[in-house]
Amino acid sequence: EGSGLGKDGQGMATPLVMKKTDVATGVITEGQKRQPAAAANQPAAKQPKPADAKSPARPPTRVVLLNNLVGAGEVDEDLEEETAEEAGKYGKLKRCVVKEIPGAPDIEAVRIFLEYERVEDATKAMIDMNGRYFGGRVV
User: Fold this and answer.
1) How far apart, in whole angstroms, are the C-alpha atoms of residue 57 and residue 42?
2) In a structure prediction context, what are the per-residue pLDDT tens digits for the chain, which is 139 residues long?
3) Phi and psi for 9 in degrees, rounded to 5?
4) Whole-model pTM above 0.85?
5) 43 Cβ partners below 8 Å, 6+ apart?
């Protein structure tokens, strides 16, 4: 059971609600106390996300890993240069390395590692590139 707003819980415990009285005016009244909704009653988008065992919470690093940019056998001589050029838009890129993993599923067969000089630049790149479409694939 929660308490009111304020340092000692002495303040408001229910919301204020604006009720219209006519087209141009209204009055502020005290609303009803909200009951916490059970997770089962919440829409899927509002339910808490389960912790993913594959991606434990870690501090951000200067390296970004791109998967599914291209599939197995689609690596060409220009891929590294083109990727480095695009990745350079987010900050100073130290290195771009393309590795093809034989026998891995197509979505993980080509791994592209981007190393930035600053964590902030890597974070910007990850936020922008994550979920981006490239050649009909979701990166």
Assistant:
1) 25
2) 456 666 666 666 677 777 778 777 877 777 776 555 554 555 555 555 554 444 457 889 999 999 999 999 999 999 999 999 999 999 999 999 999 999 999 999 999 999 999 999 999 999 999 999 988 899 9
3) 70, 20
4) no
5) none
